[in-house]
């Protein structure tokens, strides 16, 4: 009798906990995105939007050195946005006439449709469409990319090499800390879970919050160059904008695409004839040293490489902006 009474009270207790937890969980799953910091708000208001197939794409376009014909287009990484370049933006405007960056579809302030088949091919087409929108489709473009942007740059390079009409004319390419080789890429555990889809993906994306995000992203920075809490909030605000956390699993399909199209994209790099450079943060756990660098040098013997300080990791343009900028300017001024 006592045992049955205890079990009854326990069941009642769990029912009460469940009734209390349900509205709290519902509120949590619909929690609004964080407010933009003054710096991030300024970045957004100083940018513009253009429309690609009915979708709004955010971009920045700054006029720099007067009289220079040079144009640089910046391609950001996963899971962040064009704001990744803010620490070197002013420095680039002192060398280039136009400095252009966009938020890829599904990132930052751009639209984040769902369901949607996100692909590297579509992102490359969006870059081409942006340059047509700006009237720069016939100009020679310097590409500077990072992480996910490296893969988009590889597809743009492939199209350029095929001499397809309407494609970018690429003057130079500088990559940085991107998983251009599937065999040396080490995705994070959460990325592995999400990229394979399945029933867990929509649950994990809805449960993702700032704590999970910051705990997952911080380890890819070096021990002395980790972002401040306010910087992490800026990154998270960009992801949460337009419910971007709900499309992360779809965006991560690029990992599977990279394996499928390895021959196309690595082949484009291996046979490159334009000036090419790689800026590398050697503490990167995603593209680890020395395996990645050995394969890169073997595959692209004509490419030059800048290795930053030992403690610089996966986000070199944020962790060591001056070192990154100096390495890039050294490359640009070498041809």
Automatic annotation (TrEMBL):
Protein localization: Endoplasmic reticulum membrane
Keyword Ubl conjugation among UniProt keywords: no
Keywords from the UniProt entry: Endoplasmic reticulum, Hydrolase, Membrane, Transmembrane, Transmembrane helix
GO cellular component: endoplasmic reticulum membrane
Domain of life: Eukaryota
Transmembrane segment boundaries: 12-31
GO molecular function list: monoacylglycerol lipase activity
InterPro entries the record matches: AB_hydrolase_1 (IPR000073), AB_hydrolase_fold (IPR029058), AB_hydrolase_sf (IPR050266), Epox_hydrolase-like (IPR000639)
Matching PANTHER family: HYDROLASE, PUTATIVE (AFU_ORTHOLOGUE AFUA_2G14860)-RELATED (PTHR43798:SF33), MONOACYLGLYCEROL LIPASE (PTHR43798)
Family affiliation: Belongs to the AB hydrolase superfamily.
Name listed for the protein in its UniProt record: Mesoderm-specific transcript homolog protein isoform X1
Lineage: Eukaryota, Metazoa, Chordata, Craniata, Vertebrata
